[in-house]
Design goal:
single chain, 479 residues, alpha/beta, Alkaline Phosphatase, subunit A, Arylsulfatase, C-terminal domain, 2 domains, eight-stranded mixed sheet, four-stranded antiparallel sheet
Length: 479
């Protein structure tokens, strides 16, 4: 995308389509428990949908969902890689508090200047989560799709879910076509597409539980690598691809379309069963997209990065009768906010334990704003050329602290969404104030820090002919 068009796209994405939401007399619990459908995509970028700005990917069903609910412009994953982000969604706790701060289970490149902390490599069985909390209130729940939060003893059925289909410790599917080689998913007919199969299972769950409150967690493997799609869909996008368009990968487009098809089929099933008016639907992504698979413009960088392309992701929330159709919210929200929000929508009091998120109910109702001032991130890990970092966003201000040398960068996101102008040297007072908040937060949540590596050799060069030494918990596959 050229520089002339970038501000236009940014303005399109940030500008409200209509007033924020309908007004509600009181933030009281619902009269009857609503069903909850949570559709989580994997590695879907902020603009990878028609209603989020794409002129190439065709997403009529996601776009329709946006016309029925509220679209958020400043929604963030709790981490720029997937496992921590997913843990935060389910628990309402920052990855730094959980000590689950990297994808499971990634090992650092060799000979780093600092050692990474002894972090947690599974979702704790003790931490309250959405499935357990909703189950105690009479909900039946299913996790259908990618899990990636620990080995077998930490799979969904051990975490309060009544049904697990397709969830295991894999971070990506071996293939999108049956036979899948996923241990918790029986193979379908040869050539069956994974996104379609997960949707079939989701529809079956809805049908079987239509007479009771249900929580459907539908975390698609798409659009994570391997980038694969149906041949006919690829051909359609090849015919319209334009290299001058930042979105022009026809195979990735096919994966995006498979998710959109899923959203359409789920919404149709809810309408067929007359459940649509009592079902809350959430659509979002676990982190930003991988540059090269798609484009994150006008955002900087992508997955894993401390810049906006790493963790600013799409979000649509449909709360029938409450969120105003076609409304847009510009307030910054974070993955940790889903846990308290969904419990509030279900009229469920959170069990004892720390909750870092804040309910979005006032935003969804249009009755108020978030009380907090700041959102935080902490990534004490290495990922390719990405080094450990922490982040604070306060209003329009964003400070990144790079943990190896403690240097900082400061951006005003309202004026510079592409993070092209570092203001750190010109605004030392702002830097100091934000840095103090960031350090205080790290201490409050018990964030783990990197430590100097006594064996670091700055002259070391990895021999590409030898296999890399791995973390003892390492398993193949990306986040």
């Amino acid at each position: 995308m050229n520089k002339v068009k970038r501000p236009i796209l940014a303005a399109l994405l940030l500008a409200p389509l209509s007033p924020l939401a309908t007004t509600h007399a009181a933030d009281s619990p619902p009269a009857s428990k609503p069903n909850i459908v949570f559709v989580l995509t994997d590695d879907l970028g902020w603009t990878d949908g028609g209603c989020f700005g794409s002129k190439f990917y065709e997403t009529p069903n996601i776009d329709r969902l946006a016309t029925q609910g509220m679209r958020f412009t400043d929604n963030y994953a709790a981490c720029a890689v997937c496992s921590p982000s997913r843990a935060a969604i389910l628990t309402g706790q920052y990855p730094a508090r959980l000590h689950l701060t990297d994808w499971l289970v990634g090992g650092p490149p060799p000979n780093m200047k600092f050692n990474i902390p002894a972090w947690t490599t599974h979702l704790s069985l003790e931490a309250p989560n959405l499935a357990r909390s909703l189950k105690a209130a009479g909900y039946v729940s299913a996790s259908i799709g990618k899990w990636h939060l620990g080995k077998k003893e930490y799979w969904p059925e051990k975490q309060g879910f009544d049904l697990n289909v397709g969830g295991c410790d894999m971070g990506q599917p071996p293939t999108y076509f049956s036979p899948y080689r996923i241990p918790t998913l029986t193979d379908g007919p040869k050539g069956e597409f994974l996104s379609d199969r997960l949707t079939d299972e989701a529809l079956k769950f809805i049908e079987q539980n239509k007479d009771k409150p249900f929580f459907l967690y539908l975390p698609h493997y798409a659009v994570h690598r391997p980038i694969m799609a149906k041949p006919g869909v690829i051909a359609k996008y090849k015919a319209k691809a334009n290299p001058q368009n930042p979105h022009h990968n026809p195979v990735y487009a096919g994966l995006v379309e498979s998710v959109d098809d899923s959203v359409g089929r789920v919404m149709a099933k809810l309408e067929e069963l007359k459940l649509a008016d009592n079902t809350i639907v959430i659509f979002t992504s676990d982190n930003g997209a991988v540059p090269g698979d798609t484009s994150n413009l006008p955002l900087r960088k992508g997955k894993g990065s401390p810049y906006e392309g790493g963790d600013r992701v799409p979000l649509i929330v449909k709360w029938p009768g409450v969120t105003k159709p076609g409304s847009v919210c510009n307030a910054p929200v974070n993955g940790v906010d889903f846990y308290p929000t969904l419990l509030a929508l279900a009229g469920v009091t959170p069990p004892p334990g720390p909750v870092d998120g804040e309910s979005m109910v006032p935003l969804l109702r249009g009755t108020g704003a978030m009380k907090r001032e700041d959102i935080f991130w902490h990534f004490p890990h290495y990922r390719g050329k990405i080094t450990p970092y922490s982040i604070i966003r306060e209003g329009d201000w964003k400070l990144i602290e790079f943990l190896e040398d403690m240097r900082v960068e400061l951006y005003n996101l309202k004026e510079d969404i592409g993070e092209a102008r570092d203001l750190a040297t010109t605004m030392p007072d702002k830097v100091n104030a934000l840095r103090k908040k960031l350090h205080d937060w790290r201490a409050k949540v018990g964030a783990q820090m990197i430590t100097p590596n006594p064996n670091y050799d700055p002259n070391y060069k990895e021999d590409p002919r030898k296999p890399r030494a791995k973390d003892p918990h390492f398993v193949p596959g990306e986040s």
